[in-house]
Structure formats: structure tokens, C-alpha cells
Amino acid sequence: MAVIGELIRKAIDVYGFITSEPDPAKAQRTVLQNLLEKAKWTAFGKKYQFGALLDRPDFVKAFQQEVPVHDYDQLHADWWHYLLEGHQNVTWPGGQSFFALSSGTTSNSKAIPVTDDMLDAIRKSGIQQIMSLKNFDLPADFFEKQIMMLGSSVNLIDQGDHQEGEISGISAGNIPAWFRMYYKPGIEIASIKDWDEKVRRIAEEAPQWDIGSLTGIPSWVEMMLKEIIAHNRLNTIHDIWPNLQVYTTGGVAFEPYRKSLEKLFARPLTYIDTYLTSEGYLATQKRPDTSSMALILDNGIFFEFVPFTDDNMDEEGRVKPGAEVLTLEEAEENVNYVLLISTVSGAWRYMIGDTVMITDKHRSEIKITGRTKHFLNVVGEQLSVFQMNQAMEQMQQQFDVEIKEFVVAAIQKNGEYINKWFIGSNRTVDPAQMAASLDRALCEANKNYKVARSKSLKVVETEVIPVEKFYRWSEEYKKLGGQTKIPRVMKEEDFLAFETFVNGLS
């Protein structure tokens, strides 16, 4: 018997027994109250009179009435640029040691403040995730195994009074000392910035490790596992990591990658989804009988929900002034919402850019359904990334292929709009057949798309290309590896540049 592992598992069980899930409404009111109290003497808190808001009978409604909704550009232009210039007490008490450089799909130029309070909140959320493992019926010896965390470099950019890097690198560089004995690939390899060199070193060192769980974005985890298998001449990754049992995913939808990833395993793993962004650790999957994630309600983040409708959104994908905004208590299940957060990093009513759907209100569980700027609606299609992912799962089954990446745009051709798709697959598929099947699937899933197809949207085209071309584009124009994500929707100009690039590859 793995004595240490059994003790850890029992400790988790006891912790889970003596702690219970917080009452959502009460927990969120307490979080907002604490945020306002702590930030009331910052420049932002003074401008919006946080102290006075706390004296109102309903300080939550008062907060929503007085503080405007922000996107990154607004917060940066009005407030956060002062932090980058070295000022303190701007939107959160004190100064900044870290800025997370956004690795999302809409921009590579964002610098998100990461306070000490946020790092502490991320660590506490990680503990909540570990505590929830009691629900997944894992053997005792699992808790003695090492954890492979594939993220961006922990070798951060030194800017004098602060450091910059991706949130995965900042978090890994600030892990507790006791955790480092479990953490792989270790600080030395994690400091390597070049993706190919990092993966080569991991492949060389991999046989010496006893990995029990993996963490990382599916596309890059898959590339890493393939390199380890090829370098060490293995059949599956379980040949050297026989105790690998858990994969903690995040960043993008997992299902498109499941089929190809499971070819690299001798047996399926336990899959756990998480929602860690540059702005904070928002949610984690806490039980095995769902793929939804539970919002972390009592740890420095206040959530709000804007119904994702034309009435509430402008043409740039931003929330309009005066839009309907709901608390978690007021929000409903199975409605598409734009997510707003207020955090211990001084993000206030911040439009994170994701759309979510509450799948179980009692458990405060959500699914990510897409991006506000990656919602295809040029000629009335009103397609969400969630619907696109579902359609791609159908295409995988119908054509018996693996589809790991795709991108779509509405472009003009011969004076008319068409939807054109590039689909990254492991083998060739007849593009006309794929286009017809994809079109049917989207018509069945979305009545607005069906109407658009009968009027302004004349043609649907697909090109099926090797998925490696997506990664070569990412290496050229974004960067390879880490937490980098491929966009699902592009504007016409960007899409045509992407098309030129991939068609120029051999």
C-alpha cells in the first residue's frame, strides 16, 4: 500500500467532509464586499466612491449602477497604463510585480496585472481542484506521482520594477516550495523559451519521471506526447508513464482532441476541465459525471452575466452602455451570457471576452460557449464557437477523421458573401462533401444560420489541410507552444492573409 498516498487521500476526504460548497449568492456578496472594502482608497475606488457604495442598502446593485463595464482597451487606456509606468494604488492597493501577457485568440498585446492577492487566489483555487479529486475515485498511489505541467516559460521578461510573461509561466514560477518535488518538467526546462528545444529536453528526460497527471492545452500536450513517444520509440506514453491517470485540460474545448489524444494512451484517462485565464482561476470541474465546471465563488472573483444578444452587444463585440447585467443569483440556465469579472487584481466589471452558459445553477456550473469577438455574425449567421465545435464533432464521426483545429470567416466572393472554413485534419476529405455536411449540421443546430443560408449567405466552402499548417502559422505570427490558442473566427482581411500563408506552405 502507498502509505503516503493513502494519508493524502484521507486528508482530502476529511477536508472535503468538514468543508462544504458555499451558498452562491452569499459567497458572491461577501467577495464583492471584500473587493470594494480593500480597494476603496485606490484611485479607481475613490473615483467610483466604493466607500459610499458599501453604505447603500443593496451595495451590489449600487456597484452595478455606478461602475461602468470595461473591456481591456478601456481599462488599459484609463487606468492600467499607469501601473506599467510604475504608479501604485491605481485599481488595487500597492504596485505590481507581474503582468500576464495575454495568449488568447483576440490579441497578443494585452498586459494584465497579476497582484500578490491574485497569485494567492490562484494557489487556493488549485487546492480546491486538488480537494475535488476525492470525487474521482483515484487510487491512493496516484497522490504520490509527479505532475507534468506544460505551460509557457517561467523565464519572465524583466522590466525593472515588474516582470512579464504568460499566466502559466508566472503561476509555475510561484508554486509553493513543497510542490516542486512533484512538478515536472521542473524550473530549468520550464525556463526554456524555444518550444522545440523545450519539448526535446522533455522527451530526453521523460523516462526518468513517474507522471501521474498532465496539465496543459490539448494541442500542445499532444505535440509533446508525440515527440516523447517518437524520441523514446514507444507505442504509447503509458510505456514509460504507466501511472498516468489524469489529464487536466483547459484553454480550448477538449472534445475535438479526445480521439487523437487517446491514440497516444494505452487506456483512457480521467479528464478534468479547468478555466484558468490571464485574469484569474475562474472555475474547475469538480465531479466526474459532467464536463461542466463549477465557478469558484469564494476566492476573490465576483461574476456577472450579460445576455449575449444583439440588443446588449455592439458591432465590435463589446457590451453596450445600459445593457442588462445579471448576478449569478439572477442568471438562468441554458442561456448564452457574456462573462464579466471583478477581481483582486483590480479588474472591475471586466469583459473577459468569453461567453458561457450555466448548465446547473444549484452547483454554479458552467460551460464556455465561445468568444464575444469570435461569434460569426456578418450576414446574420449568429454562430457561436460552441455550435461550431459541436458541428466539428459530427464531422469527425461522419468522415472518420480527426479535426483538431479550424478557422472560419465570412468573405466576399464575386460580390456575394460566403462562409469559408479551413479545417485541420489528419487526412484528406472531399471538400465539397465536407462543406455540404457541415452546412446541414449548422442549419439543424441554428435557425438563424438556416435563415441566413436562404438569403444573404450564398455559399459554404471548406478546405481540409494538414493541422501542422495551423501550427506553422501560429509559430510565424503568434508563437508556438505554451498557452497559445488558434482563433476560430477571423475577420476577412486576417483570414485572407491566413489563406495566403497556408497555401504557400509545401
From TrEMBL:
Residues 295-364 form the GH3 middle domain. InterPro entries: GH3 (IPR004993), GH3_C (IPR055378), GH3_M (IPR055377). Signal peptide: none annotated. This is GH3 auxin-responsive promoter family protein. It holds the Pfam family GH3_M. Residues 387-493 form the GH3 C-terminal domain. It comes from Larkinella bovis.
